[in-house]
Write a structure and sequence with these properties.
The protein has 162 residues and is of the alpha+beta class. Helix content is 25%, strand content 34%. Strands 2-3-4-8-7 form a 5-stranded mixed barrel. It starts with 6 loop residues before the first helix and ends with a strand. The relative contact order is 0.15.
C-alpha cells in the first residue's frame, strides 16, 4: 500500500506567489477601475442614441410647413409640406418624416406622414440596409410635396422638389 503524504507536506511543496506591495495593489485597482469606466463609456456610446447628434432638419421657405405643423392643421386642404422620405424598415407605405438622424443609414425622426398616391421613384430613393431592421430606402435630400393632409395621411398631388 502506498501512503499518502500529509496535507501539510503537500501544502509546503506548493510554490507561493509573492504578495504584491501596497503600491502594486493600488495600481491594479486603478487599472481595473479605468477598464470598467472605459467599457461603460463605450457601451453608452453604442447603445444609447443621442437626440441632437447628426439630426438634420429641413430648411423651410415661405408657405412651407413641417410635418408636425401639417399634422396639427390636417384639415383636408392641400398643403406644401417639406421633409425626408423613407420606405421601411417595417413600413409598408412611404413616409414623409419631420427630420432625420444623419447616421449611416439615416433614420426617420417623427412625427411622420404616410404618403399615398405617389411612387417611390418620384424621390430618387437610395437603398441601404439597417443591420438591426433590414432593407431601407430613403430620399438623399429633403423633399417638398403638396396635397391634402388628413390626420397623419397625405395624398400627394405634386412633388415640387427633391
Amino acid at each position: 500500500n502506498t501512503e499518502l503524504p500529509a496535507p501539510d507536506a503537500v501544502a509546503s511543496r506548493r510554490r507561493r506567489l509573492p504578495t504584491p506591495s501596497p503600491q502594486a495593489g493600488r495600481v491594479l485597482r486603478t487599472l481595473t477601475l479605468l477598464t470598467f469606466v472605459a467599457a461603460a463609456f463605450l457601451a453608452i456610446r453604442l447603445f444609447v442614441p443621442s437626440d441632437d447628434v447628426g439630426r438634420q432638419e429641413p430648411t423651410y421657405e415661405d408657405g412651407e410647413l413641417s410635418v408636425a405643423d401639417a399634422i396639427s392643421i390636417a384639415r383636408g386642404d392641400p398643403l406644401a409640406v417639406r421633409g425626408y422620405v423613407f420606405a421601411g424598415p417595417g413600413a409598408r407605405e412611404l413616409r414623409l418624416c419631420n427630420s432625420r438622424e444623419g447616421s449611416d443609414p439615416p433614420r426617420c425622426i417623427g412625427p411622420f406622414l404616410s404618403l399615398y398616391g405617389v411612387d417611390a421613384g418620384a424621390f430618387g430613393m437610395r437603398e441601404d440596409t439597417d443591420d438591426a431592421e433590414g432593407p431601407l430606402r430613403f430620399s438623399p435630400e429633403e423633399v417638398l410635396v403638396t396635397g391634402p393632409v388628413n390626420g397623419t395621411a397625405m395624398t400627394v398631388q405634386v412633388v415640387l422638389g427633391t
